[in-house]
Amino acid sequence: MTPTPEIRTGLRPTRIEVDLGAIRHNVARFREVAGTDVCAVVKADAYGHGAVPVARAALEAGASWLAVALVEEGLELRQAGLDAPILVLSEPPIAAIPYLIEADLTPTVYRAPFLATLDAAGHARGTPVDIHLKADTGMARVGIPEADWSARLHQAATARGVRVTAVQTHLARADEPDAPTTSEQMEVLDRFLAEAAKLGIRPTLIHASNSAGSLLHDRARRTMLRPGIGIYGLSPGPEVDAADHGLEPALRLVSEVGFAKRVVEGTPVSYGHHWRAPHAGWIATVPIGYADGVPRALSNKVEVLHGGRRCLIVGRVCMDQTLVWCDDAEPHVGDPVVLLGAQGDDRIRVEEWAAAADTITYEIVTQLTARVPRHHDG
Ligand SMILES: Cc1ncc(COP(=O)(O)O)c(C=O)c1O
Question: Per residue in 343-360, pLDDT tens?
């Protein structure tokens, strides 16, 4: 049978709802923070929220750039008709150069062989390729290490096939308000910029700040912000709460009760029988599991919203099913269940899941799998 649109978007009631109004609100908040340009980071399918609709919403709210991790992600945005400037956050493989030139994606650059190949390609087409040079100022992940600054800056300054339109760096500890690291990194960035200026490289754009850097560190804001997690309304870490900065979560993860039963006191449930009913009561089974992105580590640790009450996830989370203790409130097949997001006056926050699973909000939302259909409103 040919899949109908209904089958493609899911017969199962489990779905992700993304409020594009919240995305626009959050992008506008970042624009207010510093009055600078905003580059909306929409890599990893916009942190699981859906790259194309989120990118459109971010641009509507005034973002002037989009950023992705992979050339492939940039091509997806171009194929959807988005013509805004797109930055590729890490230097792509050399084999990707023809694709990035064809699609007018702007690469981050830090290695000599990539720069040389790009220079030759720009020379061959007769128009220089715009690049954003990346200095390592203390993250020690990617970027030009200090020992190579001079050589790479000379190479960039003499290359006729490329044009350095921006200098960028990345912050290692911006989400720790009291750590001196961000200020130290800014001093290193200023030294890099001074060396670049001596060789005539004076970029129009300078960018360093992820969400936490944008919200907490004035000195790191420079001429453009590069927020990701904050535009989804989520906290960068336990010391920076998105809600305190007026950011609104955009994502809800919802389903329905798929099966309901009454159990007697002591009934053990799910794989391994790691939970037993404390007294007679109701269990609801919800058609969502770790194959959808509910971490198995959340078993017996977080709650869902059902009928306006918080109900604990009990027993091991399975691949496709999750059990919930409804106590004495009888659940019915088809009752709405909210795993993440608001129901009535209450809300289950991604931050709760992150704390319970001993991880960060980023990992929770990027692990929500493609099996869960995304619906965009607003
Ligand atoms: C280079 C770079 N810039 C910006 C961001 C956005 O960071 P955040 O999601 O913390 O705002 C990321 C995300 O990891 C990144 O790798």
Answer: 999 999 999 999 999 999
